[in-house]
């Protein structure tokens, strides 16, 4: 599903050039659940942003379902993203002014799904995430675990092929963290490819494979399944 | 999607009530100001544009050289109208117009009413619809009168006035042949009745003299006749009918009457269009300043909304969609502000009308008005929202969602530039207001040359002329009046001028124009004018004084008299006059201009007005009561009407006072709007720097040092605005003052005072938030962070 070859990303300031990704290459098959691990600043999040088409690489190739997307412009990236990729963040990133229902509904609006269909799909996913009873609440009225469930619901409501999770349990206690990991595992078992950046060895154990990074390069790979 | 946008927009408005209040208040004040000014501008540009044949209507104008300069004027000889109708096939209709105030009576009801004596074509040229009567024939007969609805109501009450008889000056009877819809506010014409021109002959006002330019002549050209063709054809009409060889005639189109009436060297150089443009610019700036508030507050809050932008982008929103979302929000706010603005306009309209001397109203029934309002609201929303929309939608979701995003704090940011723009305009307006008011005070303080207090005048009407001697004697004997004189015009108005005078030593080729004023005697005593040389006109002591004249200093100078007393001055048919005295250059017309050379002719001339000096030792109300009683006794049909010269003189400053008051009002509004924005910016600044303030306090900074730190950034912007505003305001006011010969010098202290006021206002606005942030507990602020 994903094939990156010699991916490079630099961050430049007036005085310093930092290599975030250094000729990184690997592939991820459809249906895989992969953890990316490594110390802070090793390039995990940069990689996730490029994979999620939120950022573009300075060099190298990125094939998504066989299509070269590394040089896609903003419009093409946005189109590909909204139909194929869901995101889960450490800090949930829900819109405070929208209710649970409206937050989850948002991706469907941008993919121009009709109102009735939107309602059906949002309710279905909220039900699945067991937060249906909170549908009219605002994010500030929810616990961290509930907020992350909403974020996961939003990520999956469009039935994306790929979910990118950036430390999804980083702001949660262990109980809520486990719940979220179980949710992701369930989604993966239903066929969704998941790439998760994490510091947690515990969370990584839920995945099929761990790619460990250091200084912008993949140093080892552990296959768990 | 729209529903989603609206939800977010309303929830944002509700959540940030202070921000919303400031935004909507500022924008609505700006919009209300702009709407009021636009209503005023509309009333100006629509002046006399409602006439159906307006593209073919012209006023006849003359141009000729006096004193080496080409002058233009809009009064014409009385026979011109008839000549145009008779000899010029290009003319479809022509009408002469002159104004008169007459006593209009029905039964025992007497009213002094002002109307026009005109030709029947007047109603064919102009679109003043008759509610009753036939416009084509209404003024066709000598005994006919057309009256306005309002006059009909005043004279006849609810009864039908059509076909009824009205007495004019108690001597002539006229039958109402037309009742006209009341005149709209946006016309130059101001009359309550129209009388046929034939009445001019009855009262002896008509003449066939091509050298007397005393009436307006209007023409309706035939279709296809252009302005250039008319000018070419009419150029020599006066020359061909008289000995005058240097007066050219041209036409001035109705479309230019109101706004383009200032001529210099024979060419139109502007007129009220200058004020209209100025007000247009002010309206635009006030609206822009309100929009700038919106821009600044929206971008200042950007960090709060950055997350939303990031999330929307992540889930698939493209930049265009986000731009339209934010523009939609600003249009929504603009719509809310527009509604508030409409209420403000409605509530303030009567005050604004009083201030501008207008009768503006909101045309609620006009579809065009609502369409224009919608466009106005949309446009305001787009102007206010465009910069924030592009600014916010440009955020990179990566940095926003990772929490590494911080809005730029560069040395020069668009926000700072916008604040500088706001305060530049506000400071500029403060400077202008001060200088306009200084100019008014300067002109008001100018010596008029006569004593205005206790001086009143009234027009000679009815039997006053017949009983003048008796009235005069009785007034003086009553003790209410100490002196009395008949004059040709009120002492505050220039009614007549002439270039037909000759004297010994005059250059035969020189064409010099004199202001003409007539008095029957006691002029100096009544008005308080000093006699500089010779004596006043006094026909009782000097019977030959019926042909005596006084000259002002400017006339003596231009005539070149070393010893003016005893000199003879001739004026065509009016014969010989001899100079008996010299008076100072007293102000008859504009207090801003030099006094023109003036000839004051003695009792042989014509009179319209009586000036009375009331006894200053007695109460004015008693003096007036006695004076009115005496006039009523000898002229019972006419309600006595006296005007105080000091009040009338005060009217000369009305236009400048209006500009000064409006400039002050706009300056005040601009400051209010700008300060609302500054206050909100200071609030956000304090919020954004809360951690910095906490750290500084922990490290030992005092409240005053933190307050200074927080205020300095804004004060710098106000100071930059001041530096930008000063030369602009100086240039603007310098240009404005050039139109006045008597003008106040622009002094440095105006700028100094404005600078102090601006800094004071800015400090007062910012200090609340700065002090609040400075005295906050650092432990709390650091924990918050």
Automatic annotation (TrEMBL), chain A:
Keywords: ATP-binding, Nucleotide-binding, Transport. One of its GO terms (molecular function) is ATP hydrolysis activity. GO terms for cellular component: membrane protein complex; plasma membrane. Residues 2-225 form the ABC transporter domain. It comes from the Bacteria. The keyword Signal does not apply. PROSITE patterns: ABC_TRANSPORTER_1 (PS00211), ABC_TRANSPORTER_2 (PS50893). Belongs to the ABC transporter superfamily. Macrolide exporter (TC 3.A.1.122) family. This is ATP-binding cassette domain-containing protein. It comes from Hufsiella ginkgonis.
TrEMBL record, chain B:
It is found in: Cell membrane. The keyword Zinc does not apply. Keywords: Cell membrane, Membrane, Transmembrane, Transmembrane helix. GO terms for molecular function: transmembrane transporter activity. Residues 20-236 form the MacB-like periplasmic core domain. Its main location: membrane. Coiled coil: none annotated. It is a multi-pass membrane protein. Residues 281-392, 665-778 form the ABC3 transporter permease C-terminal domain. This is FtsX-like permease family protein.
């Amino acid at each position: 599903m994903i094939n990156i070859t010699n991916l490079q990303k630099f961050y430049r300031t007036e005085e310093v050039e930092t290599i975030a990704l250094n000729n990184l290459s690997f592939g991820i098959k459809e249906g895989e659940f992969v953890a990316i691990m490594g110390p802070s600043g090793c390039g995990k999040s940069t990689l996730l942003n490029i994979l999620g088409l939120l950022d573009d690489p300075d060099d190298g190739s990125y094939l998504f379902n066989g299509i070269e997307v590394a040089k896609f412009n903003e419009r093409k990236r946005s189109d590909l993203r909204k139909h194929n990729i869901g995101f889960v963040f450490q800090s949930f990133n829900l819109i405070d002014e929208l209710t649970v229902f409206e937050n989850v509904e948002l991706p469907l609006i941008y993919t121009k799904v009709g109102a009735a269909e939107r309602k059906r799909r949002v309710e279905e996913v909220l039900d699945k995430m067991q937060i249906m009873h909170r549908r009219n609440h605002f994010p500030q009225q929810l616990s961290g675990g509930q907020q992350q469930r909403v974020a996961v619901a939003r990520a999956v409501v469009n039935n994306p092929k790929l979910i990118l999770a950036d430390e999804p349990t980083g702001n949660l206690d262990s109980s809520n963290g486990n719940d979220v990991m179980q949710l992701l595992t369930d989604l993966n078992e239903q066929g969704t490819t998941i790439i998760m950046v994490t510091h947690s060895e515990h969370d990584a154990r839920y995945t099929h494979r761990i790619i460990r990074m250091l200084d912008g390069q993949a140093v080892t790979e552990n296959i768990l399944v | 999607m729209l529903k989603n946008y609206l939800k977010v927009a309303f929830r944002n408005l509700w959540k940030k009530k202070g921000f919303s209040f400031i935004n909507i208040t500022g924008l609505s004040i700006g919009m209300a100001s702009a709407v009021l000014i636009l209503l005023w501008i509309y009333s100006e540009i629509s002046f006399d544009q409602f006439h159906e044949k307006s593209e073919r209507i012209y006023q006849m104008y003359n141009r000729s050289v006096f004193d080496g300069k080409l002058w233009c004027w809009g009064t014409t000889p009385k026979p011109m109208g008839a000549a145009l109708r008779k000899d010029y096939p290009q003319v479809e209709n022509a009408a002469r117009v002159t104004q008169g105030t007459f006593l209009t009576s029905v039964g025992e009801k007497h009213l002094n009413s002002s109307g026009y004596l005109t030709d029947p074509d007047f109603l064919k040229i102009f679109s003043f619809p008759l509610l009753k009567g036939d416009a084509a024939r209404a003024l066709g007969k000598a005994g006919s009168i057309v009256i306005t609805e309002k006059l009909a109501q005043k004279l006849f009450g609810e009864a039908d006035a059509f076909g009824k008889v009205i007495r004019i000056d108690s001597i002539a009877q006229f039958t109402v042949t037309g009742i006209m819809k009341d005149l709209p506010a946006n016309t130059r014409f101001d009359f309550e009745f129209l009388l046929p021109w034939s009445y001019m002959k009855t009262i002896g006002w008509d003449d066939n003299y091509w050298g007397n330019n005393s009436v307006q002549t209007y023409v309706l050209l035939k279709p296809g006749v252009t302005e250039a063709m008319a000018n070419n054809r009419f150029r020599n009409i006066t020359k061909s009918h008289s000995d005058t060889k240097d007066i050219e005639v041209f036409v001035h189109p109705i479309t230019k009457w109101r706004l383009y009436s200032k001529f210099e060297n024979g060419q139109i150089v502007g007129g009220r269009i200058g004020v209209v443009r100025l007000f247009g610019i002010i309206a635009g700036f006030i609206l822009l300043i309100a929009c700038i508030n919106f821009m600044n507050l929206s971008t200042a809050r950007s960090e709060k909304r950055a997350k939303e932008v990031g999330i929307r982008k992540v889930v698939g929103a493209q930049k265009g969609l986000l731009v339209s979302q934010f523009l939609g929000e600003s249009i929504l706010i603009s719509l809310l502000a527009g509604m508030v603005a409409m209420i403000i306009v409605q509530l303030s309209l009567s005050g604004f009308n009083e201030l501008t001397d207008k009768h503006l109203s909101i045309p609620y029934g006009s579809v065009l008005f609502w369409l224009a309002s919608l466009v106005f609201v949309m446009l305001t929303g787009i102007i206010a929202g465009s910069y924030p929309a592009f600014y916010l939608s440009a955020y990179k979701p990566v940095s926003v969602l990772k929490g590494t995003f911080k809005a730029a704090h560069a040395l020069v940011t668009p926000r700072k530039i916008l604040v500088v723009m706001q305060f530049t305009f506000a400071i500029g307006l403060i400077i202008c207001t001060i200088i306009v008011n200084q100019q008014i005070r300067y002109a008001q303080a100018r010596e008029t040359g006569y004593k205005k207090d206790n001086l009143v005048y009234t027009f000679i009407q009815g039997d006053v002329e017949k009983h003048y001697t008796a009235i005069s004697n009785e007034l003086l004997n009553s003790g209410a009046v100490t002196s009395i004189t008949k004059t040709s015009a009120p002492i505050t108005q220039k009614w007549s001028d002439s270039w037909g005078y000759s004297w010994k030593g005059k250059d035969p080729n020189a064409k010099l124009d004199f202001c003409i004023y007539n008095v029957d005697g006691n002029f100096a005593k009544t008005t308080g004018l000093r006699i500089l040389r010779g004596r006043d006109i006094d026909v009782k002591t000097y019977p030959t004084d019926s042909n005596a004249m006084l000259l002002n200093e400017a006339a003596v100078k231009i005539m070149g008299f070393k010893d003016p007393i005893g000199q003879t001055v001739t004026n065509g048919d009016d014969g010989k006059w001899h100079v008996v005295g010299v008076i100072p250059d007293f102000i008859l017309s504009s207090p801003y201009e030099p006094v023109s050379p003036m000839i004051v002719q003695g009792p042989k001339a014509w009179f319209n007005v009586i000036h009375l000096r009331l006894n200053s030792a007695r109460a004015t109300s008693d003096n007036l009561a006695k004076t009115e009683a005496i006039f009523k006794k000898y002229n019972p049909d006419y309600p006595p009407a006296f005007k105080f010269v000091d009040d009338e003189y005060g009217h000369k400053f009305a236009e400048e006072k209006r500009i000064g008051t409006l400039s002050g009002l706009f300056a005040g509004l601009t400051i209010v709007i700008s300060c609302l924005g500054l206050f909100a910016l200071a609030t956000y600044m304090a919020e954004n720097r809360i951690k910095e303030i906490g750290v500084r306090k922990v490290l030992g900074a005092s409240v005053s040092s933190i307050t200074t730190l927080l205020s300095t950034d804004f004060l710098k912007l106000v100071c930059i605005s001041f530096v930008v505003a000063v030369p602009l305001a100086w240039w603007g006011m310098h240009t404005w003052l050039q139109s006045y010969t008597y003008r106040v010098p622009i002094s440095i202290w105006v700028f100094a005072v404005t600078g102090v006021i601006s800094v004071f206002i800015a400090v007062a606005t910012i200090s609340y938030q700065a002090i609040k942030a400075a005295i906050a507990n650092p432990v709390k602020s650091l924990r918050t962070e």
